[in-house]
Batch of 2 targets.
Target 1
Amino acid sequence: MGLMKSWVRSANAAAAPFPLNNLPYGVFSAAGAPPRCGVAIGDRILDLAACERAGLVRAGGALTGDSWNAFMAQGMAEWTALRARLTALLAEDSAERGAVEPFLVAQSGAVMHLPIRVAEYTDFYSGRHHATNVGTMFRGAENALPPNWLHIPIAYNGRASSVVVSGTDIRRPWGQIKGRDDAQPRFAPSARFDIELEMGAIVGMPSTGPITVAEADAHLFGYVLLNDWSARDIQGWEYQPLGPFQAKATATSISPWIVTAAALAPFRCDPPAREVALLDHLKDDGPMLFDIDLSVTLAPKGQPASTITRTNYNEMYYSAAQQLAHHTTSGCPMRTGDLLGSGTISGPERGNRGSLLELCWGGKEPLTLDTGETRRFIEDGDTLTLTGAARGSGYTIGFGECTGTVLPAHPDPYARKTR
Amino acid sequence: MGLMKSWVRSANAAAAPFPLNNLPYGVFSAAGAPPRCGVAIGDRILDLAACERAGLVRAGGALTGDSWNAFMAQGMAEWTALRARLTALLAEDSAERGAVEPFLVAQSGAVMHLPIRVAEYTDFYSGRHHATNVGTMFRGAENALPPNWLHIPIAYNGRASSVVVSGTDIRRPWGQIKGRDDAQPRFAPSARFDIELEMGAIVGMPSTGPITVAEADAHLFGYVLLNDWSARDIQGWEYQPLGPFQAKATATSISPWIVTAAALAPFRCDPPAREVALLDHLKDDGPMLFDIDLSVTLAPKGQPASTITRTNYNEMYYSAAQQLAHHTTSGCPMRTGDLLGSGTISGPERGNRGSLLELCWGGKEPLTLDTGETRRFIEDGDTLTLTGAARGSGYTIGFGECTGTVLPAHPDPYARKTR
């Protein structure tokens, strides 16, 4: 399948991120109106709240709210029907262009909001190169992968209240820190603040008991870019034995557009060979990974951006479907709007690593930017930007960017009570 | 302060759990009407939705919904005002008895629901005897307490979707399990299913940046009994290095009545002596623990209950206020309805331990019930019940019970999709 042409001309360039093949869903506001649901097409957003009110699309009123949750909860048949209807309305030969065109809004004039109300946020650890790199740094090459790692997609529960949309500034956190050679811990701003390049999978359909891998795949509505901001020095002191907590609770940024599982179907690819056979309940069920190019840039304040890593979502060891299946084994109820972080996605080479921790090997091997500056971890004023693209024949499925600028820590964190 | 007398006679007995001094808040349904807010007094519930509609209390409509979240978000001044108004309405000498009495409902005919919409659930590990017991079993007496334990109230994020109200049956979970001597993991029902006797603190007022210990205390609306059901065999295999996940995701039960911080004020007590000084941001700020007797009974199916442990909430090393202060150090936003589990509350002796893991020392020292049966972990059909009481001079502040019966694991967890 090649490019599907739209009468919105800006959607038809081979490198345009939002062609008719994509149709990603977001929540936007423009011209003083409240946040509402929209779909990106070329350099425009189609106002779906207005379209639903005008009777151009039907979703039981689910598109007039300020999140996609109500629509996601309706399930696969409705997801398929809306996508088909939007494809027809926006196709080059659409007879309804005249009715639709008044509801297009320029992306350049719109503010994007979180596309979902995040119910709960779970962060996995399913990138093998990342787990191997981190394990090697902390436990040595012989014990790099934890014993359970090849058997289950291990994870911890993250903090949903800290998920923010791309573009939100990130305040460098304070925390309790104790270095290996410190006699006592101290309360100080994090000096090892980092990114984690991840994808986020969004649960559309809820569940109340264990679900199979195949069922789990059909519960996933779509995908976003995700940056799990991480304070490595806070993490090092707090994480044993209960896992990461405040080190990961400052913020997690996601890209504003949900690229649907349907749009990504042409980019499905096979999981890796299994060194150890997976138990039946986690077994691979067809091509459940996705071929999506990922990269990160770092721009010091007022300076141009340097690309610091390039990798691909197909480096995952476990698919989002396997993660969701594991998540339900205990009977854990899953809800519409649950967000599953993939875990940091690193590739095999140094230039493919998804965190500064790995890129600079714990601070020992500084990274040189295009500007000549070096970095071990994030410095105040740095802007970190994740991008993603699935590359089809003559078209691109883009995600929009996932960006954030790190502000200096407050001199006194208790003097000021707002973010 | 002694017993405050009410014209609801059943509230005036010294051992009655819901005297006028208590006034705990819950959500109930009765006589086919939908769930709504109520306050317990003696053996009755005062229907606060009806009272608000009748103009007897004013809370901006917050009492007519099916949770306490809207009211909790209004803050301390409103909390104080409602308590004062209810105290006046229900006092022995109230002139408004005639107007209020029609809105009393018998507790025996009511169904209790979750009193809050749980925003997120965090489980701490702040009981020193518990942490010492578990650490001794897993790492030996020399390394029982993790190095960070005396410096921060460590915690992991739990799963809010799995929080259920007392009385909900608990289905024994399946999970991936690998014993120390097993060559490979297997997928099987948990054979080491356990309770954790905890208290839960409920965040009423939200926050968006670091808050002090004193500020944190004023954000806490009230307290419930909490049983964090735990699959020890699943936990043993999954928890390194990211902490507990599916082992704690089957269910967490809470008691139906929120006992307010105001009702517990007379029972505040001092924290323990600090072996290692706390850093300034976590320092004790007055008497922030509570003297509340706690116990657990176990009843095998169709048989009488045996008390298996007695302890007290004053065994905590960190207060809920210190836990909440730590939770916000990173800037983590806290929301109305966040639930903070205390961690398992064990006392110094065997008879004071808050989990079967500790009571039976990992299964090595079976417990003999009053019926002569023995237990190492929970068996199918067992009913576990937590109770709590703060004992004043001539009155008692009760919590209502937190109970659950464990049902057998499904023969095939994938054959059936409901809890």
Target 2
Amino acid sequence: MKIIVDGMGGDNAPQAVVQGAVEAAKLIEHEIVLVGDEQKLQEELAANGYQVNDPKQGKISVVHASEVILNEDSPVKAVRTKKDSSMVRGIRMVKEGEGDLFISAGNTGALMAGSLFNLGRIPGIDRPAIACIYPIMTQEPALLVDAGANAECKPNNLLEFGIMGSIYMERVLGRKNPRVGLVNNGTEEGKGTTLTKAAHEMLEKSSQINFVGNVEAREVPHGVCDIIVCDGFVGNAILKLTEGFALAVLKLLKQKFTEGTRAKAGALLLKNKMYELKGEFDYSEYGGAPFLGVRGSVIKMHGSSNANAVKNTILKGIPYAENRVVETIESAVLEIEEIVNSED
Amino acid sequence: MKIIVDGMGGDNAPQAVVQGAVEAAKLIEHEIVLVGDEQKLQEELAANGYQVNDPKQGKISVVHASEVILNEDSPVKAVRTKKDSSMVRGIRMVKEGEGDLFISAGNTGALMAGSLFNLGRIPGIDRPAIACIYPIMTQEPALLVDAGANAECKPNNLLEFGIMGSIYMERVLGRKNPRVGLVNNGTEEGKGTTLTKAAHEMLEKSSQINFVGNVEAREVPHGVCDIIVCDGFVGNAILKLTEGFALAVLKLLKQKFTEGTRAKAGALLLKNKMYELKGEFDYSEYGGAPFLGVRGSVIKMHGSSNANAVKNTILKGIPYAENRVVETIESAVLEIEEIVNSED
């Protein structure tokens, strides 16, 4: 298998990307292909002590691309005009069968637009979604679908998110029969908006998922379900609010625990525990966010990914291509059509 | 001024309600009227040592109501059939001019339905909203509008929420020129859904508010704005997720800080700081949630309000009636009509 990595995408590229790739390559049999400015990438490989033909270091190669899509670029325009960007080149390699998986920390909108232009949607999937790991303290993480690709959704989109998320969690995260929950403003059936009421009916009809019904946002951080289904506007709010609140709590703890000698002494004794606490909020351990519904395996990393996040995204992304998630979704769409048609 | 309090609403009624009223009465000149089962309320007053005609204890009277609206009651049906409930009686007293403010910890849906049936909307306000205090750690709290009354909104509703929230914060919470932010999935103008884009345009046109533009959910816990404007579905998610996450963090801290002798010793030294931390999340200090846009002053308390929450809701609710918030909103609607008409 060949894993294509955008060498130039993200705030810390190419350094962190190359370092993460070098670390990952040591642990896997598959080949990693870095796409981007060849000279810079080779320099970074050398700086990380990578040597071709050293079996202990695994297989890394470089494919040159002369352009870079920036975060401030307009997504659609960028993928149309920067044809020789590391991102477009990488996506095209998956399209042409020269790679099995593409990973990028670059411009999210451009990565989605480029994936849709070049790889297209899985037939029968109306709206591909970004599936994002949602950390649950002291438990296995959940998967949030959609994390922001589709701010406005129809009920069948939420059905698609539930089914695709379920397949991803089984095949990639290895959790059997994951619980699918629909974010709503009350748990009772019949609660909600026009959208969530109709989506609830459709999700209930699916025989492919373990639908546990409506879930309230209050229960989400306690692990009430494995797949958190919502439209991309709400998903974005849930994800960002959690990040923002976690940061605010850590800041407040730091402030409180350094006020006065007594507090400082206490904090010193709790140092390890505080590290563990910070670890609960650490996204870099969890891997990236797949674009479910795209006809090809594409994974988005956080824009500020460090080397550890890059390494983990590569390692945890392998089953996405290896366990044929795209093909499995392809074979699951028939039921979606049946359910949607039965509603008309 | 007369403050009408639903003696029977909420999980801890009538005990906590009466105790909170007794504590509040000592601190204010205004009369508190408890509505509900007269015998039970008098018993609770006695149990709390309340004596009529003791000037130090303030003025409390009881008005009998034979029925109680329960949490599990269907809101609309309950307010239609339970005419002699403490809730409907209380709302009617405001309607008839026998009270200036009604406070209840009972069924939220019934309180909104009963308020709309009996008091009606302020002319020109399309959708009344629940405005909820949103705690910001180490800073003054923000106000979230709408916290859940209107799961589906039109752009003009969000404009109304911004204007009404702004008036409430100035007149009741005493914050001058409060910053109004629109929750969106990006801060740039032009970002968002059909709803948020149109609402952004309208909010920008208002000369009555200090509109600071789009705000991302990530920035909300850091105090990016004073009035958090969003539809009731998103508002419910923000509020509930924050509550749920705060609880999960406190639970995790407790767990981590009791693992092993070293951690326990550290936690002992940090005991006061931990209390302070818990206090940051304590809703009972902040007072209740006004129903903005209703033609009368109605405040909802949290269903699980304790005596302290009841006391604070009474004390902090007084300016809602005293500073003529309803009348100020009435005089602000002309601009809303102009802005909405200019969009057509």
